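Deliverable D5.2: sample structural annotation.
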Amino acid sequence: MTTPNNNAQVRTGFNGQGILDLSYLTRLPVLEFKAATFSHFEFTDLNTVDTESENFRNVGIREDFDIDDRIERYQVSFQNVGFLLSEWPPCRDTDGEWLEGRGRTLAAKRNGERWMPTAVYMRTDSSLKNTVTNGFLAHSSRPPVYASTFRDFVEAGVHLVTSGEFPKTKADIDQWLYHDVKIERVFNNSNGLITKIRDQIIERSTRDESLILRRPTGEWHKWIKKYQGLSRSQYVLVSCDDATRAMRVWCDHILPAVKEGREPVNIIYYTNKYSPTDARTGLTESMAKLEEFFKSSFELVNSQVPGVTLAVPAGRPYTILGAVPQVVKSHNVTGPNLVNVTKY
């Protein structure tokens, strides 16, 4: 079937199957958001969507840690049955900020689709609190494919408190949880679960000044290739979360490289910690371990080979290129640059 080129309300369906006619969406009940009024449907050109922006990355609303699994399921669904006009489409406001549907949008983009049916809203409040709150309302207003989790609510609350969106008091956090995001659509407090979420928000926002943007390692490899221009054979991505990772990179990468004359080994750090304090501590300890292993190698030779005294050279068989940007308030998490480990 040929799609009329002069009709912006009708386009070829996903995977080249059938058509997408936006008029069918008018039959659906409108998805409601706080301080936002539905305006109209349109097709969003996915070639113009910046999937690395903080708004699109869903910072403070949902973790990216399981994103590959979620997106792959959407991709397979789009390939098999296309985009279903029986479901409310992804939503953004008139300024292009996304309210809901990022997973479906990213899946369509990865599938090579060009046009995504989109519901556009006019907002009277574009604050961070409103954006985060609306993300949770969208997840809980209908049976979601991927429901918000205990951790999602905690991370969002920490993000809002540390961003100054509301005070760090039990009353203000309860107001946000019960009244704004309507947490009782997802959890009940019969066993004190919502109270635990509130208490963790207070504890975390007291201890930490920011969120950590967590992604699966596959996403970081893509980021490094895109922005650093490095293939996976040109660097080692190392977790700074425990000392055993430093030992592994020493034994599995640096020692073989020295033996084969391929040094220095390029190292890029990342973390899966939730706390910036813990991440910084882990990074410092990991780098110290590498230094310890290097110096210990010379001490070993000097102690085992009679008459030999080797001085520790100035150079190292590895180069720390930096760390991927993850501390939301301290790093440019939407930028293209690695973070200098001395300023992490």
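Annotation notes: The first strand starts at residue 10 and ends at 12. Residues 276-304 form the longest helix (29 residues).
The annotation will be released with the project's public dataset once the embargo ends.
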